[in-house]
Amino acid sequence: MPEQPASVPPAAVHADGVGLPRRPLGSGDEWVELPDGRRFWGRYGAAGLLVSAPGAGVLLQHRAGYSHFGGTWGLPGGARHEDESAVQGAIREAAEEAGVPGGALRLRFASRLDLGVWSYTTVVATVDQAFPPVIGDAESVALRWVPLEEVPALPLHPGLADTWDLLRPLLEVRPTLVVDGANVVGSRPDGWWRDRVGAAARLRASLGALATAGVPGRELGLPAEHWWPEIVLVLEGQAKALEDDEDGPVRILRAERDGDSALAAFVQSSGPATTVVTADRALAARVPEASILRPGRLLELLDAVGGDS
């Protein structure tokens, strides 16, 4: 969480000829003062990206000495722009400061510190393979991949130091949202029985929108404010004729016999942090290791992200 720097070198200030800083339209590059006198960077809040790669650890930024908490290690990030989400801000800042390829990121979760008039969001993502980071501005003196076990030994930015013990175990969590397709489709009387394949297609499209938007952590029984779980849609009967969408974000599981048995077998073979969407009490009893989300609540989440289920 960057506060006011002790000094700013000339290279970090872009003058417009009359001694005033030039800012992009809608930029949040301003200080926000809290009632207790503390000042934080980002008129619209700030965000940082914690990206991890298998075998490499996490990408950290060694902050320039002129900045507040200079010499410490933290996350690429900065002030959000007006009308910019925390995710958009974190990815943009990480691209500008560290050359992070946004298209390679897989979002995992987001943790938010809310101080009322100012907030900071840590967006956590993974990449399949570590990439060479590139210093993009004067805020960094070094960028490197740090093995997870070595992070606590570094002189960390206080914001990261305060949250690392909370973030570290969550890096291993891979939540799954398993949707009982027949139960969810049948919970909304929109004529689905006349075209079961079409109804399944609409539900998959809506779940795709949810996969992009993410799910509040409380709906999955997980800490941190927001998660991007793997979404699995279980189909049975006529709905199994739905064509595959190999590039889509929703995985289809077609039941060989009945949907309940297929779903239960999948949950039993999957890892922890699994949530099943169903109103079927008998099915819920077969998956005691999973948390349960009611179809009505899922439909509310889909409606909120513009999913037409």
Characterise this structure.
It is built from eight helices and 16 strands. With 309 residues, it is of the alpha/beta class. It has two domains: 10-170, Nucleoside Triphosphate Pyrophosphohydrolase, CATH 3.90.79.10; 176-304, Rossmann fold. Strands 3, 4, 5, 6, 7, 8, 9, 11 and 12 form a nine-stranded mixed beta sheet that branches. It has a five-stranded parallel beta sheet with strand order 14-13-10-15-16, with helices on both faces. A hairpin with a 3-residue loop joins strand 3 (46-53) and strand 4 (57-63). It starts with 30 loop residues before the first strand and ends in a 5-residue tail after the last helix.
What portion of residues belong to β-strands? 15-25%
Number of helices: 8
Proper CATH architecture of the largest domain: Alpha-Beta Complex
Question: How would you state the average pLDDT, rounded?
Answer: 88
Order of helices and strands: EEEEEEHEEEHEHHEHEEEHEHEH
> What value does the Rg take, in angstroms?
22 Å
CATH topology of the largest domain: Nucleoside Triphosphate Pyrophosphohydrolase
Q: Give the low-confidence spans.
A: 1-22
By CATH, the superfamily of the largest domain comes out as Nucleoside Triphosphate Pyrophosphohydrolase
Largest sheet composition? 9 strands, mixed
Overall 3D shape: elongated
Structural class computed from helices and strand pairing: alpha/beta
Q: What is the number of independent domains?
A: 2
In the CATH hierarchy, what is the class of the largest domain?
Alpha Beta
Report the span from N to C terminus.
Answer: 40 Å
Helix content: 25-40%
